[in-house]
Amino acid sequence: MIYPSVLNAVVSALAAEAIDNTSKQAWQKLYNSEDEENGGDLATLVRSRGADTIDRTQVDCWVSARLHSALDPKHWDALVAKYSTHRARKVQSLGNLQVHVGTPAPKLFLYKALTAWAIPQLKGIRPKIATSVSVEIPLDAPDWRRNSMVRAAVTAGHAKAKKDESRSSGMIVLKDSFYDMNTWDNEGTPESTRRRWRLTIQQTADSLVNDALAHAEEILEAEGLLIGQAA
After folding, report:
1. Left if phi > 0, otherwise alpha if psi is -120 to 50, otherwise beta: which for 67?
2. How confident is the model at residue 230 (pLDDT cuts 50, 70, 90)?
3. Over 80: is that where the pLDDT of 109 sits?
4. Which domain holds residue 149?
5. Interatomic CA distance for residues 157 and 135, integer angstroms
6. Where are the alpha helices (DSSP H) in the chain?
7. CA 86 to chain centre
8. Are residues 107 and 196 in the same domain?
9. Based on the domain organization, do 11 and 93 belong to the same domain?
């Protein structure tokens, strides 16, 4: 398993971390941070566990664990805050990052500015979950047939609504009003000052992400997991 770029590896690893499935759980039982401390790479780790091959999810999970173990906590938090789709971990990392962003802005402003940076405003992504169903019933259909068709339509509608709700539950979407900078400050600070605060906070967060990616690249290159390094 070789990644085309460090960003691809990070995004894939964090996506795998957000998945709760048997493959991931099985691999976590095999992972031991002492393997890296003792100089073991991924290939050595696989062989030591008596396996011939591992699938993509398992590699992603291993990379996630490797980066989490090796990166500075603030750099790991920067990557999770920016690229993770796991709600709880993203929120936790955003909270951790606040102490690493120097700004004269109030705490509320810092919190909202960092959150807006990590979850940019996107248009038209809120899925609509159906609350009603429609069904075509022949006029001459007997009552039993009408009832059967209605029940089938309602059952199908519930199933679709449940599927849509499950699909949307993994999305992190903020209300449009959250991005209104007028709600970020209750002290009547001039807009020019608020814009400067926001820019500085975003630049600091971007710098933490860039540093994190640079260190992650060093780690992945040492493991031989990047295409350029492998070539």
Report:
1. alpha
2. very low
3. yes
4. 128-169
5. 10
6. 6-17, 22-30, 33-37, 42-48, 56-70, 73-83, 87-97, 107-118, 143-169, 191-223, 227-230
7. 5
8. yes
9. yes
Task: Give the chain's radius of gyration (CA, Å).
Answer: 24
Copy the structure tokens of residue 1: 């398993």
Length of the chain: 231
94, 113 Cβ separation under 8 angstroms: no
- The 3-state DSSP class for residue 190 equals coil
Main-chain phi, psi angles of 31, to 5 degrees:
-75, 135
How many structural domains compose the chain? 2
In tens, the pLDDT along 133-161 reads 677 778 787 888 778 777 777 777 777 66
Task: Answer yes or no: is 209 within a domain.
Answer: yes
| 23 and 102 fall within a common domain | yes
What is the sign, positive or negative, of the torsion defined by CA atoms of 173, 190, 200, 106? negative
CA distance 206 to 212: 10
Helical residues (DSSP H) of 128-231, grouped into ranges: 143-169, 191-223, 227-230
Nearest to 83 by CA among 117, 110, 118, 59: 118
d(CA 8, CA 228): 13
CA distance 216 to 223: 11
Task: Examine the domain organization and report whether 93 and 177 are in the same domain.
Answer: yes
State CA 21 to chain mean position distance: 16
Which two tokens mark 7? 């960003």
User: Does residue 1 sit within a domain?
Assistant: no
